[in-house]
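Minutes, methods subgroup
Present: GH (chair), OT, SY

1. OT presented the first of two proteins processed in the latest run. Sequence and structure tokens recorded below as shown on screen.
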Amino acid sequence: MNKIKLNKEDIYPSKVVCIGRNYIDHIKELNNEIPKENVFFFKVNSTICDKLIFPKKFKECHYEAELSFLIKNNKIVAVAFGLDLTLRHIQSKLKQKGLPWERAKAFDNSAVFSEFITFNKDINKLGIELYINKKLRQKADVSLMINKPDDIIQEVLTFCSFEDGDILMSGTPSGVGILNIGDVFDCRILYEDNLLLEHSFVVS
């Protein structure tokens, strides 16, 4: 099974639970409707990766930066920077037909994570920044989320269980775009505007 790192320890998540359309500006960016209830999809263990790899079978792939949380006993215990890779052209066709998104979202290596670090402070004070080739592309904080992380967890538990070590990806802000081989991604998580975690990827 694929693994993530928590304070240098190997963790093997059974799944990644993702929420879509959780930032107003991103919804507008893709010309989607604001959902009346949470939009969920799942990424299986084979999607988990610690490298940013362009899916060579496809001509185009988009990045989506997300605050990502490690779950234990149905609570958040750690945080990481996550990238939800998306085959947008395929997703758009699936949405038009009212079909599930997994073909566009759950391909191998499509859930990319920095190392997780233990977190037991106020989630509402977390923010995220993504720089690509030194230019700021995505920036947001929890206050801009439609559904906050703890509320998302409670909603998931109405129909699905979390195994200890599972991951919650909490949605992406506006600024998504095309992944290019050779791009340098500098990823930051902030707490009260202070740097909490920093990680860099180079697209291979």
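2. SY then presented the second protein from the same run.
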Amino acid sequence: MTTRVAIDCDDLIRACALGDRSALRALYELEASRMIGVAQRLLRRRALAEEAVQDAFVSIWHKASTFDAARGGGRTWVYAILRHRALNMLRGERRLEFSDAPIGEEQASEDDDPETIVTQLSDKAALRRCLQGLAADRRAAIVLAYVHGLSHSDLAIKLGMPLGTVKSWLRRSLISLRECMG
């Protein structure tokens, strides 16, 4: 038996796919307060939770046409989007918190190619030496993933490689870097 909330979410998402802004507003009114609570448990800060919920609703609006009720309920789909966004925010924070870059060092631009970024590292830096020990394509994969923040899927598309290959390259390259830096 399907609950009324599930039916409402499914219908509202389908309406969003058709461009109905009032459906998005209704979905927001139906789920936003609960979503903020879920996001706050993951992110531990109200402001970040609100940002995650806002980003989730933007994604819901843009991806509503991909919703398939046969694969799961609308409410489940909405919360999966929220969870994904919150976890990405946590990953981004961890990257910032543990950055080894000296204060004042220029940040990489999204327009910089991986080779430019590697050459901008300090000549004395062990990381540069270790990165240069990797094959150029693997070095590019590491830089694109960890400097530009590309997901494995985005990286596979950008490099024109199978997803499994990209994951293997990253894993092996990180092992090599760890050994080199060790």
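Chair's summary of item 2: DSSP finds nine helices and no strands in the chain.
Next meeting: continue with the remaining queue.
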